[in-house]
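This is your field. Have a critical look at the following sequence-structure pair:

***
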Amino acid sequence: MLAPIILLAAAAPAADPCATEPNDCIIFADTVPQMTVVASRVPVRLEETGLSISQIDLAQIEGLSLPLVKDYLTLVPGVAVAQTGPLGAQTQVRIRGAEANHSITFIDGIEMNDPASSGEFRLDTLLAHGVGRIEVLRGPQSALWGSQAIGGVINITTRAPRFGSEFYGEVQGGSLGTLRGGLGGGWANDAITISGQLSGLATDGYDIAGSGGDRDGYDNVTAHGRIEWRASDALTLLLVARHQDSTSRFDGFDFEAGVPSDRPLSTRSRQSALRAEAALALLGGDWTTRASFMAVRADNINRNAGAFQNRSDGERDLFRLQSTGRFDALGAEHRLTAALDVETERFESSDADADALSNQRQRRRQTSLIGEYRLNAGGPSAGVAVRHDMNDRFVDATTFRVDGVVPLGDVRLHAAWGTGIADPTFFDQFGFFPGFFVGNPNLRPERSRSVEAGIGWARDGHSLDVTLFDATLTDEIVGTFDSSTFLAGVANATGRSRRRGVEVAGSAQLAEGLRLDASYTYLDANQQQVAGNARLREVRRPRHSGSIALAYTGKALDLAAAATITGARGDTDFARFVPVTLPAYTLVTLSGAWHITPKIDLTARVENALDATQIDVFAYRGPGITAHAGLRFRL
């Protein structure tokens, strides 16, 4: 199946694609879509959770052959993607109307949110090559995963075999001087699994200012490796390492004319990550304890015509100790988890001017206690989680989550309630440019409370799910401006912001090898900065959005088409500080693969096939129609 099929928690588990022809198929850990690794502190089956989860697997990723992971997120219900112009430009993802820094991104279990920026993960730097599965969990998940998980969690699993060996690669070139490619491989037996990928992308881009100036290009090189050693039946050791280095070139903004201005600006972003873990399974696997250490290092370096302007560097160290016990009682399976997280973050900013006030170093620590209980009664399932965060630089916080699911034949009823928090960023607390922006060390974490309920149906390869959600955000951190001192800052809002809507997703097996998938989201997202004032519509969040994907899989040829529909959204014209409306658009992707041999494919892709005008951020237009072709192999 080549289409980006959305598998919901209410859908029936998909069959293992290697079960029918095991001699001809390499088995991948990421081709088991009936499991989820972010809906609980331990992996659980999708039918055991009442949360809203979407998954995109390896076959679907290769089917569309899109360059960046953010391109696939546009196909997920409840997810809005805003790209500031060309490929590699700043890209923000908002889940269910939450802010761009209200979600967490994991890559092979490592939290990758950038401590050197606004707390977001820069999804514009995440290449799709080597990714085996994309999982999106919607709704507040702070009770499990801590700060920022108000909108949800994005989980990326890299490609790795469960047994056997393989070597794969691809190269593709096309419009705007774009070249992308990558190599990867893996080997696994009963005791050890080794996998790794090296991928790159380069594009000349286009002149976003449209004034005949320099083109705004992008370069990215990413390396990722993973080793898992099952030393014995009881002990498993894991090591994951990752490094990404990218440079994005962009233009400035003419505040008088209200349009981008041609300037030789660039940002170099580098991020390194490490995860080391030991897991001990006792009592036949019914009691498992994990100890892990994760480290993330990130820096963002800004230049003008090659000359250094400023940079920000961030570090995050996380120590995690977790123990889970499973037992049967009263005809049901029970699972109890207790965990301790100790996280230390460090931040440093520096300017070309050694005397600039923005030169600073900051540090903060958080210690968290987590508890989770899950029940599986052989049909109905439920879970409850609680987390308490103890902070040294702002007030402590406690979050909760409850979910449940009840199967009724082919129908499933699912519901969840939870709270979430988003801690102040280093910029919020201490200010990045204190000359005109003053941080607020007295900020409180933002808080969200959300409820959702849905009904799903699945039978014979067909499925349909409808979910209603309602969330309230308090203590939102908003911008302020003092006209007497001309200083900007931030403060906790006194009002309440609302995000509510409905998500619909369905799929149908139209014929042998032919599948249709579709989704639709209605979102009503409003902000209230001051209690008692009228609520205003949140910017860059479409009221209506959706996707349609059609895929055909044949012996000689695979074809796929996907359309993502983004409705009209509000934004701000920062030259005049007035609200504007961004027009709706539909992006159509056409892709295909001709199987020259069983191991080699000739690939082709057309993006924005209708040449739609795409503007996600006021005055910054996206690329028009582009075409790409290349080769893909697997040995």
User: Anything to note?
Assistant: The first strand starts at residue 27 and ends at 28.
